[in-house]
Amino acid sequence: MALNFTWYTESFRLAKEFKISRGAKTHAHVLVLEVSSVGNVKLTGWAEAVPYARYNESIESVVVQLEEASQHISQLADQANLTKLLPPGSARNLLDCALWDFRAKLENKSVISLLGMKQPSAVLSAQTLSVDSIETMQSEAKLLSHLPLLKVKLDANDIVEKMKAIHAACPNSDFIIDANESWNIKILNKVLPKLTQLNVKLIEQPLPADNDAGLLDINSPIALCADESCHTAERLPELIGKYQAINIKLDKTGGLSEALALAKAAKDAKLQIMLGCMVASSLAMAPIYLLSELADYVDLDGPVLVANDRENGFIFEECRMSAPPNLLWGTG
């Protein structure tokens, strides 16, 4: 069956400005890929990705990769060659996930059944607090004080003071801190003893990915999670001893196929698993949601962060995330 590839950009306005240590944004700019059959039987699979400047990607650079790679994919079986055609990243993610969706429609089976895995039930997803002033973050936290798990974006400023204020607003919540590479080893050593008293369960990427060797000397009472340092299963051994957890994102692994391989390797290595996302719609969340049964933490609140999600997207009841019967991706 011959295949045709079409890609286009979309922009989702965010419900509110989203801030992390390296910048802020008001819109999510995404790239969508559609894979369609050529001939009498018309089938279309699709996927969504967020090219990320942190990994030297732009929408333009990913489009160039798609233009080149799509010329070497003439049939569904060519999905197995994606790792030879493309490095891990958004382009490979788009092709891999769109081909999985296409396969589900072609075989009239869900992707989860094709993988031979258990369908996730409603899962607890962290809700995100953007980095801001102490007062603003505490005020935002009060609105989420009934939720059991919050992810807090922080930079290197007022770390403990902000967490004390947030903890006071949400005394019964657990916290994941995401530093987005903004700390150094001195800061980490200084704040760790105090953060242990504030329900912090995980600290995500405290040090820059290319300067995290110092973590080998840290005996952290809080699990440290690799995000920017973690991409594929092949490089996982480099993280052992530095981190106790990894954050799996499709735009880093290059799609669902590698994400599953990475999750299995992490399980074998006795590492905790967090499922993460870029800010995007439910279409970007749907493939990685299938790995929820393997995860210790789920952080897939992208659809909550956009002002208007796609039709047939995920259902969020407070912090509980579940898929509707006719989810927009992967249901065959």
UniProtKB/TrEMBL annotation:
Cofactor: binding comment: Binds 1 Mg(2+) ion per subunit.
Entries under Pfam families matching the protein:
MR_MLE_C, MR_MLE_N
- InterPro entries hit by this protein: DgoD-like (IPR034593), Dipeptide_epimerase (IPR034603), Enolase-like_C_sf (IPR036849), Enolase-like_N (IPR029017), Enolase_C-like (IPR029065), Mandel_Rmase/mucon_lact_enz_CS (IPR018110), Mandelate_racemase_C (IPR013342), Mandelate_racemase_N_dom (IPR013341)
Per UniProt, residues of the Mandelate racemase/muconate lactonizing enzyme C-terminal domain are: 134-225
User: What is the name listed in the Swiss-Prot or TrEMBL entry for this protein?
Assistant: Dipeptide epimerase
Q: Which domain of life is it from?
A: Bacteria
Catalytic activity, EC: 5.1.1.-
The cofactors required by this protein are: Mg(2+)
The organism of origin for this protein:
Glaciecola petra
Which of UniProt's keywords are assigned here? Isomerase, Magnesium, Metal-binding
User: Keyword rRNA processing, does the record have it?
Assistant: no
Question: In the UniProt record, what gene is named as encoding this protein?
Answer: dgcA
Protein family membership: Belongs to the mandelate racemase/muconate lactonizing enzyme family.
In terms of CDD domains, this protein maps to: L-Ala-DL-Glu_epimerase
